[in-house]
Automatic annotation (TrEMBL):
Pfam assignment, any one: PCuAC
Gene3D superfamilies: PCu(A)C copper chaperone (2.60.40.1890)
Protein's recorded name: Copper chaperone PCu(A)C
Organism: Wenzhouxiangella limi
Signal peptide region: none
InterPro entries listed in its UniProt record: LpqE-like (IPR007410), Lxx211020-like (IPR058248), PCuAC_sf (IPR036182)
């Protein structure tokens, strides 16, 4: 079985919404397509359905060298990305990662990814709790993340 076939099989077995142990519901995860070798972004909704704050501090993916949590800031009239050490989600809060704002940065791609393919990503909180998700590669929309 090829890696692509395995990814497609995995997609069939994973529901669109993943309810993790810690009460973090992750939905509508997607990544704009990018030229081979370029870093990619990850967008999604994060809903903390639990009683306690969830503080995400890290991420990882088998398809990328490393994963960072980024935000966008205005710097002398130019939008720039900045790495966040942590992303806190209060109980009941929905945080949206979307183009032009908060996003995951998927750095050092290990293989080309075509439209419709999926990326396994795991978010990790400060207590070491892991929140797996699957991001679908979709067409790039405006506003663009650039790279
Ligand atoms: Cu970024």
């Amino acid at each position: 079985m090829t890696r692509i076939q395995m990814l497609l099989l995995a997609l069939l077995l994973i529901p669109a919404v993943t309810l993790a142990e810690g009460g973090l519901v992750i939905s509508d995860a997607w990544s704009p397509e990018a030229p081979p070798g370029r870093m990619m972004a990850g967008f999604m909704e994060l809903h903390n359905t639990g009683e306690d704050a969830i503080v995400l501090v890290d991420g990882e993916s088998p398809l990328f060298g490393h994963v960072e949590i980024h935000t966008m800031i205005m710097d002398e009239g130019v939008m720039r990305m900045r790495r966040l050490d942590e992303l806190a989600i209060a109980p009941g809060e929905v945080v949206k990662l979307r183009p032009g704002g908060l996003h995951l940065m998927l750095i050092d791609p290990q293989q080309p990814l075509a439209l419709g393919e999926t990326i396994d990503i795991t978010l990790i909180d400060e207590q070491g709790e892991r929140y797996p998700l699957v991001s679908e590669v979709r067409e790039r929309t405006r506003p663009s993340m650039g790279d």
